[in-house]
Amino acid sequence: MAEAGTGFLEQLKSCIVWSWTYLWTLWFFIMLFLVYILRVPLKINDNLTTVSMFLNTLTPKFYVALTGTSSLISGLILIFEWWYFRKYGTSFIEQVSVSHLRPLLGGVDNSAPSAASAANGDADSSRQSVSECKVWRNPLNLFRGAEYNRYTWVTGREPLTYYDMNLSAQDHQTFFTCDTDHLRPADAIMQKAWRERNPQARISAAHEALELNECATAYILLAEEEATTIVEAEKLFKQALKAGEGCYRRSQQLQHHGAQYEAQHRRDTNVLVYIKRRLAMCARKLGRTREAAKMMRDLMKEFPLLSMFNIHENLLEALLELQAYADVQAVLAKYDDISLPKSATICYTAALLKARAVSDKFSPEAASRRGLSTAEMNAVEAIHRAVEFNPHVPKYLLEMKSLILPPEHILKRGDSEAIAYAFFHLQHWKRVEGALNLLHCTWEGTFRMIPYPLEKGHLFYPYPICTETADRELLPSFHEVSVYPKKELPFFILFTAGLCSFTAMLALLTHQFPELMGVFAKAFLSTLFAPLNFVMEKVESILPSSLWHQLTRI
């Protein structure tokens, strides 16, 4: 009985809500009926006649001025709307309507989650957005002195943004400092050096620290920022390795004596891993690829828990250079796992290996006639998977967009990650015969599988909406950031553009052909009001002419 009573009350409430929703229609018809009934005492016909006589006395110049002013105003609105859309990605009029006018009119977003579902899902959604919009250290970042600075000297452009370099400074303070640095003079100087914004001040502080002691972090800073060639950087990193290994062995023996010693050992471990990784990257850049691959393998075996450095991505690139595709597949089998975070390197390298098996004989004409084979289908599905993860990469691999130097930090699934991947892996795709042709023929099919990528994904989470904003902070201003999905022009921009063009055309035609436009305007208005006149005549024939007098008597 209680459930039946509750159901009846809910049904009654829904009926009341429905009636109030459509009550405005009844009110509208009542107002029309009252206006018709009161047309005689309100002298509506006389007022319409007066207005018509006034309009007939106006010259064509007035209409030219009217339409011209309308065109000017709508053009100014169009320019403002376009500027606002380019800067903020939304329509100003639409934003004001949704934010301010809709609540006043009692509008409710039916798609908004209920309070209960919001309470249950807020934590998951926020955790997902934070993880997807997290900025990561670029595993293949270049050397500032030997590569980034040389680019600046040649072109006069700054390849790194302040935001990117600030993130690097925070990384250096996190990995290369600890709470006990003030006890050692050289480490205390380097603790301040990592916070310096001026590069020359950092370099001077590193030299000052080396005068006091053999400091591994001082050698790291000089190798990264002062060395102008990779050979010089490698020499400094070898000196840093010698100093770093000694500190690591000493702290390893004392790590269990207290929290401070444990923190110091953690710092020395980070320093040692960083030095060995950069030495391996130096060997790779100097052409000693096998040596670099061996150093990376040894480093991964020695420190298997430090997966945050993503050393396997450096190893994958070196193995692809060696064309050791079996070894590449073995690394992917370990790291391309559903429980591990994905990256463009993982997804596109897997696609490259699948494409390598069929790309040399692939022909779109032959595939359309006979259909795709199992191997070709696997390759196409791998490409679709990679494109869904990062849709910006294919334009760089197919050289539809120009490459720039990759930043020191990347946003996964963003344009910055696409640049970092294509900068180092484009040569590997070119080396596999037909791989780029297969990518060119199939990559756009991914977007037909995911028509609404911001709402629902296919193999991954929906595409995060934060990538454009973060990439604009990470990438230099002279680079045109790739945006996905492409934003459609808001309705109000299209509307104001059409209104501006239409009123400008009317102003021009009225100025050139005043008499013809007058005839056209009269014909248009008579046609427009013909249905209304017909309805009025029918109503007058049905209702008695003395209805108003009868109502006044009542």
TrEMBL record:
GO cellular component: membrane
Keyword annotations from UniProtKB, A to Z: Membrane, Transmembrane, Transmembrane helix
Subcellular localization(s) per the UniProt record: Membrane
Superkingdom of the source species: Eukaryota
Residue ranges crossing the lipid bilayer per the database entry: 21-42, 62-85
Claim: Transmembrane helix is one of the keywords in the record: yes
Membrane topology according to the record: Multi-pass membrane protein
Protein family per UniProt: Belongs to the ST7 family.
Protein name (record): ST7 protein
Species this protein is from: Hemiprocne comata
Encoding gene, per UniProt annotation: St7
